[in-house]
Each structure stands twice: as structure tokens, then as C-alpha cells.
Design a protein that fits this description.
The chain has six helices and no strands. It has a domain at about 50-145: Fumarate reductase/succinate dehydrogenase, transmembrane subunit (3 helical TM bundles of succinate and fumarate reductases). The protein is mainly α. Helix 3 packs antiparallel against helix 4.
Length: about 150
């Protein structure tokens, strides 16, 4: 019985000339613009940045445990450069993906953000290299932080 009711409703709509006229009017009208068109971003190729980011990630995989197990200046320099490059590229990609899309190309704030990230990366690298050459090194610093110190007896 319910199936019969559906057929009656369906037939009444399809056989109604006013229904067909309204559908024809709706389909033949061009769509009205509701918002200004969004400009497409300039075509860029991010594969080079992605490959460089992965390169530093893959270098860190063996160097970090080896550097912590056998501390030395060479491994500390590798750890410092790879960590800073990995972090800098990651932050640059975040800025490109999430901040740059909402701003006009060449905006002053965007340039300030990029220069700030570059300055922080350079400062971090200088600090880590100073720790490597003028102090005990990155690996020995991490080992010292992780060292278990016995409680003093009272």
C-alpha cells in the first residue's frame, strides 16, 4: 500500500506541467555570482622542499642514537645541523601552507615572519655549535640531563 502511495505522488509531480516549467526555468538560468572568485595560488613545485625535509629526517634516524651512544664533535655537528634544518624547513612549510594562503603575496607581515624564522634558526644553530665546540657538546649535555643522580643521605 505504501508503494502505491509513492507511485501516486511520483506520477503527480512528473505529469504536472507547472513542475516541469519551474525545473526548466531553474536549469536554464546561469548561476548568479555569490562571492568574488578566489584567485588560484601561483603554481609552485614543493617536491624539492619535501625531499630536502625527508633527507634531514632520514639522516637524523641513525645519527641521533649513534651520537648519544658515542659522543663526539662530528656527530654533534651533524645533530645540530640536521635538527636545525629539519625544524627550519618544517616551520617554513607551515608558513607556506597555513599563513601565506590567507595573505596577499609579498605582504610585510609574511616577510617579517619568514625573517624571524630564519633568525631563530640561525640563532639555534649558533647556540648548538657553541655548545659543541666551547662546552661539553650536545650528546654529553643530553646524557647529563638524563643521568640518574642519587639522593643525598641525611
Amino acid at each position: 500500500m505504501a508503494n502505491l502511495g509513492f507511485r501516486l505522488i511520483n506520477r503527480s509531480r512528473t505529469s504536472n506541467p507547472i513542475f516541469h516549467q519551474r525545473i526548466h526555468q531553474f536549469c536554464s538560468q546561469p548561476p548568479s555570482p555569490q562571492a568574488p572568485p578566489i584567485k588560484a595560488p601561483p603554481p609552485t613545485n614543493y617536491s624539492g622542499s619535501w625531499l630536502t625535509h625527508r633527507f634531514f629526517s632520514y639522516i637524523l634516524l641513525p645519527v641521533l642514537p649513534y651520537g648519544l651512544a658515542y659522543p663526539g664533535k662530528v656527530t654533534d655537528v651533524l645533530i645540530a645541523t640536521c635538527l636545525v634544518a629539519h625544524g627550519h624547513l618544517g616551520l617554513s612549510v607551515i608558513i607556506t601552507d597555513y599563513v601565506e594562503g590567507g595573505m596577499a603575496p609579498g605582504a610585510k607581515l609574511l616577510r617579517v615572519i619568514r625573517k624571524t624564522i630564519l633568525g631563530l634558526s640561525i640563532g639555534t644553530l649558533v647556540g648548538l655549535l657553541y655548545l659543541t665546540f666551547a662546552d661539553i657538546g650536545i650528546a654529553n649535555t643530553i646524557r647529563g640531563i638524563w643521568a640518574v643522580k642519587p639522593k643525598p643521605r641525611e
